[in-house]
Amino acid sequence: MIHMNAKQFLRQAYKLNELIESDKEELENLRSLSESISGDMTQERVQTSATNDKIVNIIARIVDLENEIHDEIEQLIALKKQIRDVINKLENINEKLVLKYRYLMFFQWEEICDKMHYSPRQIHRFHDSALENIEVPFSL
Question: Does 1 reside within a domain?
Fold first, then answer.
């Protein structure tokens, strides 16, 4: 059982999203590497088993990473639903909006101010009030 405060609970989606993005970058690097190796192979007259092994290993890593990313995306979708359900229990619409923009859509503070047409100070007041009013599930 993990106990966390409201901000830690809400930030989980952002952190998981960042993990997914870093995995996608790694995937692109692996794809580039596989293309460069297979490009080298087409220039060789005789394919060596070492080169074939490299490609097979890289393709296996690509498939594993794609599966991992898929699982993380499913986890992110479920986590965002859980966070959305908790946020929707708030009564104040401005508190709900600030938390949704910040923790589900990952907006920067300036973007939230522009979107809601409030000053940074007022947005932070809504945020602080929402964090006090939110009910974080006891165990995750």
Answer: no
Is residue 118 over pLDDT 60? Answer: yes
Does residue 67 form part of some domain? yes
Angle between helices 6-43 and 120-133 (to 10 degrees): 110
- Kindly state the average pLDDT of the residues 39-66: 75
Structure tokens at 13: 């989606």
Q: How many domains does the chain have?
A: 1
Beta-carbon contacts of 47 under 8 Å, excluding residues fewer than 6 positions away, are 41
C-beta of residue 133 within 8 angstroms of C-beta of residue 6: no
* Residue 138 forms part of a structural domain: no
* Domain that residue 70 falls in: 6-133
**Please, are residues 15 and 103 in contact by the beta-carbon 8 Å criterion?**
no
Closest residue by Cα to residue 84 from 63, 62, 99, 94: 99
Residue 1 three-state SS: coil
Q: Evaluate whether residue 139 is within a structural domain.
A: no
